[in-house]
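Hi R.,

As promised on Friday, here is the backbone we talked about, encoded as structure tokens. Could you run it through your design pipeline when you get a chance and send me back a sequence?
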């Protein structure tokens, strides 16, 4: 084996340790014993000629080189998984086109897109997969989804071809009893300086959270309840109000950047099903969502 040859097994082992930052938990996650996992990581470091992990009595931490390998290994493993998924599905001519989107996002646009697709007799059935914030990119890269509805500039669009569908403003979602909820409009300065209602924090792609006083959230349902309880607020595209609770009020944020909903798919990946969905998307492109009402 050449020095620059890496096995997918080695990458999976390293990613597990790098994400858990604990050899015991990583071994349990992988379903193997800890000693062979430790040996495999040491062997990988020797072959690459770099230290990937700092180990001491306090635990495990990534080195700079380890951080690079973690990013690259995730991409490589996603590409291998995508190749396997797409190869298996290539023989199934009746399989649905898998479209992934954030739960509650672009709801009206999605309804129109599905209706337009269903009206085209040459279009494959569309299976909709609803996910949490930031998960579309991973599902596309791993081959578990064929196409996604994503949002510029907030989503990770690296490595994807895209087509703009519509652009809209944003609203602040607030607990109905808060004083800001009575305003006709707000600014980013207004919502960014509310001591009793800090903005919620979503995880970054690496799983870490930005600094700030707001609560850490993982799911839309967590967020919805925290807003209703008066613990947080958030700024979202106006059409994402599809999941708004009666305890919420949406107020336009006049200087928030516009959000563009895009159709995204892996660069260079083409199929008759994707082409048919593109025809359906042409019928809904540039049609703005319905104006939000208080």
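Update: got your reply. Pasting your designed sequence below so it's all in one thread:
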């Amino acid at each position: 084996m050449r020095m620059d040859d890496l096995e997918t097994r080695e990458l999976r082992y390293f990613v597990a340790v790098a994400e858990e930052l604990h050899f015991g938990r990583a071994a349990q996650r992988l379903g193997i014993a800890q000693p062979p996992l430790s040996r495999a990581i040491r062997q990988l470091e020797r072959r690459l000629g770099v230290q990937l992990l700092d180990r001491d009595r306090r635990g495990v931490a990534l080195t700079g080189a380890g951080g690079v390998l973690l990013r690259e290994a995730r991409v490589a493993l996603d590409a291998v998984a995508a190749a396997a998924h797409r190869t298996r599905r290539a023989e199934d001519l009746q399989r649905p086109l898998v479209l992934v989107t954030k739960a509650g996002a672009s709801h009206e646009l999605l309804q129109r897109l599905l209706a337009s697709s269903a009206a085209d007799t040459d279009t494959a059935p569309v299976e909709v997969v609803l996910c949490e914030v930031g998960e579309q990119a991973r599902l596309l890269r791993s081959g578990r989804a064929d196409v996604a509805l994503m949002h510029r500039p907030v989503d990770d669009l690296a490595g994807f071809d895209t087509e703009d569908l519509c652009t809209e403003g944003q609203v602040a979602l607030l607990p109905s009893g808060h004083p800001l909820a009575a305003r006709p409009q707000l600014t980013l300065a207004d919502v960014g300086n509310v001591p009793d209602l800090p903005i919620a924090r979503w995880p970054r792609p690496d799983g870490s959270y930005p600094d700030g006083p707001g609560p850490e959230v993982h799911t839309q349902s967590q967020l919805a309840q925290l807003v209703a309880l008066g613990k947080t607020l958030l700024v979202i595209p106006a059409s994402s109000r599809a999941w708004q609770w009666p305890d919420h009020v949406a107020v336009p944020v006049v200087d928030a950047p516009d959000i563009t909903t895009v159709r995204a798919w892996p660069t260079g990946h083409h199929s008759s099903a994707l082409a048919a969905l593109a025809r359906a998307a042409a019928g809904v492109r540039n049609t703005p969502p319905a104006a939000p009402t208080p």
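One thing I noticed while checking it: The mean pLDDT is 86.

Thanks again,
M.
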